[in-house]
Amino acid sequence: MFIRVVSEILEDLRQVLQQVDEKEIDNFVKALLDARRIFIVGAGRSGLVGRAFAMRLMHLGIEVYVVGETITPAIREGDLLVAISGSGRTSFPLVAAETSKRLGAKVFAITSDKNSPLARCSDYVLLVKGRTKDNAVRDYISRQLAGEHPPLTPLGTLFELSTSILLDAVIYKIISMLGISEKEMLERHSNLE
Amino acid sequence: MFIRVVSEILEDLRQVLQQVDEKEIDNFVKALLDARRIFIVGAGRSGLVGRAFAMRLMHLGIEVYVVGETITPAIREGDLLVAISGSGRTSFPLVAAETSKRLGAKVFAITSDKNSPLARCSDYVLLVKGRTKDNAVRDYISRQLAGEHPPLTPLGTLFELSTSILLDAVIYKIISMLGISEKEMLERHSNLE
Amino acid sequence: MFIRVVSEILEDLRQVLQQVDEKEIDNFVKALLDARRIFIVGAGRSGLVGRAFAMRLMHLGIEVYVVGETITPAIREGDLLVAISGSGRTSFPLVAAETSKRLGAKVFAITSDKNSPLARCSDYVLLVKGRTKDNAVRDYISRQLAGEHPPLTPLGTLFELSTSILLDAVIYKIISMLGISEKEMLERHSNLE
Amino acid sequence: MFIRVVSEILEDLRQVLQQVDEKEIDNFVKALLDARRIFIVGAGRSGLVGRAFAMRLMHLGIEVYVVGETITPAIREGDLLVAISGSGRTSFPLVAAETSKRLGAKVFAITSDKNSPLARCSDYVLLVKGRTKDNAVRDYISRQLAGEHPPLTPLGTLFELSTSILLDAVIYKIISMLGISEKEMLERHSNLE
Which chains does A contact via 3+ CB–CB distances below 8 A? Predict the structure, then answer.
């Protein structure tokens, strides 16, 4: 039974990920490589997905910071903010995006809603479909009325898992472009924990 | 090209996940539901995967803590430590596992290596295959000699992504067993960020 | 020379702390003990001061959460938000305070500016003087014109150190009132790091 | 009554801080300025004190990382680890110190116990007296037998507050030596929260 659950989740992820626009990925990779420094922001599980991405960017030798961590400096012109929010309405990444724009930095939103406040205030958008927690209750009620099962991927799970995989595919793309070896990555990997 | 990369990652994940032992999942769910309180520990990206799992357990109304966060209390008899480490050799989760055992708490290891120090000091093991960062360099050298491409999923990526999906499948299993509605989960979801 | 620097900092702290209104401390202790659950929020070094306070509250057996950490649930009516910001203008605690008010929770601000947006949206204010980073540049220019030394306590340092000591005095007050032994505190102290 | 509690805490801090060896402070400042990069480690409230220090070092333009945060890279020869632990026995900073030594980095311990494992494995020690949580229970029993009050500064409070002030005095010393203006510090101060 468990393997069937896993297979359905993987199939849902495949469906979300094949809708991602290849052009948006290219823009994203270009923006990452063009930026003087990269700042990552997200709340909750989206924030954790962002940190996992930031850690790999550091392994690639790219200067990156996570908003809210101790040594994160001021963002400035020439820097890129990557703001991750399924709904595009979470206040923490939204405020960071608006502030970054005002300070002259570029903003790349990763979101499920291209009409959200986050998407609208960003320079670029990378659209990743997936039920976000904001439409979760509506979906739940429909399913209940229809006598269906609980959702496989409650709240923002589908967006978060899809974005995790997508960002690791982006890392692979950068590795291929820059010719970075796994040995180099391992040499930068934290060795004090 | 990007969708092909994503497809290959999904296929790798499927292969890892179908090797997971259904019995170990059952043990894991039982241990989670039997525990007085749950503590989660992991370093680096495994730690982030653990936090994403902890957040969902909280949404289910289960008492859970992340080792290293501010309000995490002392572990005691009756509690369960879930220690996540691909190699099973990372010192932070390993020390936490050994200490937990000594204090009379149960330990569940999620690891790729059933002979690792972490697996050996744990009460239960949930084996999730996947290249861990410890065998990454050896693999890299083999691939170089064979003229192959860089790895799709460098360092611990395969273990981390597989474990993310697996733990969300475990959450689904608990939701189904306990009959928890998405509305209840949303009501517990952090509303201050 | 170093001991002279330390003595001057201690004297500055004494001056700030003796201006704290004893009545506000009493209100604060009462609010902490009356709350169903306590949530702590702050950005940067004020956030770190808040976490140190949260950790001690946990040692006292009080249910407390830090906004932004993994297992922090939704705030609701009956809960208390403690928002720490010298300037009372930092967006992260300010948004949390406004949201908490809207959701029916009480808000206690610890700030240097009783006319700040944070103080104005809060139910109670605990005023802790001290140069905040917002008036730092103006002070700096005055000192430069006057040929004076660099500030002993740059940016928000004076507010942060004063608030640290004040919150540990609050902990002492709660210990005395509730008759909690140090042994009990030690038994709750994290034992996995 | 509250102001009397605060005065006694300040007096305790003064007594601890005037015992600090000026020579050790000079060594510490020299080690900080000589290091290629600085890494800070501590658990619990000592870890929070370390982060507050790391944040100010970043404001001074010094390259610094906190062990356990997302973008912290591998430590290497030429780097300095600052390990903070009152007892000098906490496993997280101790393991980091031992690993750093093995990898050829320098280690500076800030501790209350010059005979602790941490002090013994470090290149330099900065001794900050203060009851640590390890001798707290013994003290408590003596006080109980003597009919005394609960301790003003339970567990590691005295060490943590003393070290906070001491590290801000070190920041002042570096500011004076390097002639860094508060304006420069403010320009580096995080602007996205």
Answer: B, C, D
- Single-letter amino acid, residue A137: V
Q: What is the pLDDT, as a whole number, of residue C1?
A: 76
> B136: distance to nearest CA of chain D, Å?
17
B137 touches chain D (CB under 8 A): no
Nearest CB to B95 within list D68, D95, D99: D95
Angle at B79 between CA B73 and CA B82, to 5 degrees: 90
- C72–A contact, CB cutoff 8 A: no
Q: Which residue of A has its CA nearest to B95?
A: A193
Closest chain B CA to residue C67? B192
Known catalytic residue at C11: no
- pLDDT exceeds 80 at position D136: no
Q: Which of B69, B98, B160, B184 is an active site residue?
A: B160
pLDDT, tens only, A12-27: 999 999 999 999 999 9
What's the confidence (pLDDT) of residue B113?
96
Question: Domain C2-187: which topology?
Answer: Rossmann fold (3.40.50)
Question: What is the C-alpha separation between B130 and C137, in angstroms, rounded?
Answer: 53
Position B150 scores a pLDDT of 76
Q: Where are the domains of chain C?
A: 2-187
Tens digit of each residue's pLDDT (9 = 90 or more) over B116-163: 999 999 999 999 998 766 666 666 666 666 666 678 899 999 999 999
Handedness of CA A97, A100, A102, A106 (dihedral sign): negative
The secondary structure of chain A as a DSSP string is -HHHHHHHHHHHHHHHHHTS-HHHHHHHHHHHHH-SSEEEEE-HHHHHHHHHHHHHHHHTT--EEETTSTT-----TT-EEEEE-SSS--HHHHHHHHHHHHTT-EEEEEES-TTSHHHHHSSEEEE--S--GGGHHHHHHHHHHTTPPPPSSTTTHHHHHHHHHHHHHHHHHHHHHHT--HHHHHHHS----
Which of A70, A100, A185 best tests the D interface by mutation, with the highest count of D CBs <10 A? A70
By the CB < 8 Å criterion, does D60 face chain C?
no
Nearest Cα of chain C lies from the Cα of A21 at a distance, in angstroms, of 32
pLDDT bin (cut points 50, 70, 90) of residue C99 is very high
Q: In sequence order, what DSSP letters do the residues of B156-184 get, joined into one string?
A: THHHHHHHHHHHHHHHHHHHHHHT--HHH
Question: How far is it, in rounded angstroms, from Cα D123 to Cα D117?
Answer: 12
Catalytic residue among D148, D160, D187, D193: D160
What mean pLDDT comes out for the span A86-112? 97
Find out whether B84 and B50 touch, Cβ atoms under 8 Å: yes
Pick from A80-94, A145-159, B90-104, C166-180: least confident = A145-159
Task: With H, G, I as helix, E, B as strand and everything else as coil, classify residue C126.
Answer: strand
Q: What pTM was computed for the model?
A: 0.95
Instruction: Quick: pLDDT tens for B9-59.
Output: 999 999 999 999 999 999 999 999 999 999 999 999 999 999 999 999 999
pLDDT in tens, C39-93: 999 999 999 999 999 999 999 999 999 999 999 999 999 999 999 999 999 999 9
